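Before relying on records like the one below, remember that each one covers exactly one chain. Contacts with other chains, cofactors or solvent are not represented anywhere in the record.
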Amino acid sequence: MSDSPSRLELLHFARRVVVQQATAALAQLDGWIAAEERREAERRRGEEARPAPPEWLIERGLNRDNLVAVHRGDCWDAGKRHVPVPRAQALDALRQHVPACTQCRPDTALGLLD
């Protein structure tokens, strides 16, 4: 008799190899899914923990006493040197002729017009 494996033995061997490779591929895919689920959960937690934007902002110049503009809290053009302020302080700044942002128009939102 010959020492070479039979056709049936080769088919069983091929099946074991395919099962082993599929199991490894599934484990890798499961790891990718778990990592993505963790990232998504972290993103959701971050969004939930983020504080609400302020209603009003005052933008300051390089000299902290120099007020550049009044903005709505969600204004995209607020600049880097802005501070959140309450409604009354935003109104007061506009009444003292601090310019209103031309993009978000806080004077209109506060009920004041130029």
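The chain has three helices and three strands.
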